[in-house]
Recover the amino acids of this structure.
């Protein structure tokens, strides 16, 4: 019998970064490029017209979960 104690399901309930960005009206490539260029949350917010709080939350999600939050447990 396969013991799976401590393991959760092979999916996540976290939305992907792309989905979150789409809901905010942002393009994933542009957002990631801005992060790569070292732009601050304030700079990205001003450039996109999206609030600094939303940009900060999106950056935090990216730093914690990456681009896609769905991870399998093989």
């Amino acid at each position: 019998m396969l013991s799976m104690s401590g393991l959760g399901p092979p999916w996540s309930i976290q939305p992907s970064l792309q989905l979150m960005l789409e809901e905010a009206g942002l393009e994933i490539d542009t957002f990631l490029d801005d992060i790569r260029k070292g732009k601050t949350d304030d700079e990205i917010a001003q450039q996109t017209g999206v609030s600094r709080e939303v940009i900060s939350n999106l950056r935090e999600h990216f730093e914690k979960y990456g681009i896609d939050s769905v991870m399998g447990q093989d």
